[in-house]
Task: structure prediction
Amino acid sequence: MNFKHMLKVMSCLISLGTVTGVHSESNQPFLLILGVAQDAGYPQAGCFKPHCMPGWHAPQKRQHATSLALVSPASNQTYLFEATPDLPEQLYTLHNRVSSTQYSLAGVFVTHAHIGHYAGLMYLGHEAMGASDVPVYAMPRMTTFLRDNGPWSQLVSFQNISLRKLQNNTPVGLQQISVIPFLVPHRDEFSETVGYSIRGPNASAVFIPDINKWHIWQQDLAEVVRQHDYALLDATFFSGDELPGRDMSKVPHPLVTETMQLLSNQPDDIRQRVWFIHMNHTNPLLDKASEEYQSVTNAGFNVAFAGLELIL
Result:
């Protein structure tokens, strides 16, 4: 892609749990997309409607919940952004890309307390991995929620995880990389909700998998995208008619069509930085053959997919 800052994107294909394709052999850190679906994945539990049936019949069509892995070759460490219910498969995918015998899991950054974003922490417990003091980075309310409520509190008391409290707009320094959490409006029943700005030596990414409508945020979305080389943005719903019989105001998200309209007057190099992610099982963007998918790419935007690598 021809960006002002030259977007460096490499993709790979995932088939039956094995990652294949072209990979970076450089010492540069990168993000690896481990999942792109909404919290419950695709197909969703209990959904046997026509749009879900391809996922039940063909394992290769299934999509894991949204998660990123940050790989740091300089330190031989990896970090997860979100601990999803699909964590076992996602760790296997990461292992096939960078072996866990050479790279250690050095931390998990969590955005908020909705199931697709933290429930995978259970696999770090003594019934599963029996991990030791894995740092879990979270905001104050999220930290309190994990510390004071079972079964998550057992992860703390058994020292499977070590809670690291974040502060709004305060960077966390990792080797070669800076991670900056920032508050976004969302349904904050049990915790705050944050996005993350992830800044490497050569490029940066902003990760906002969940947010209410953009105008509530009081930030200029175009400027946020302009300040990053990659913008992984909430694409839960493509349009407002995906949940018949439900009040969409109860599950507010920026529709993909709204985000596209908001950025429609931006130059090509700004629109090309956008990667739509966190798609509900009803979202036609999960189907590359759909008209909606083509409309997004024809307008100069991108749809994230598992296996996508973004060089930082």
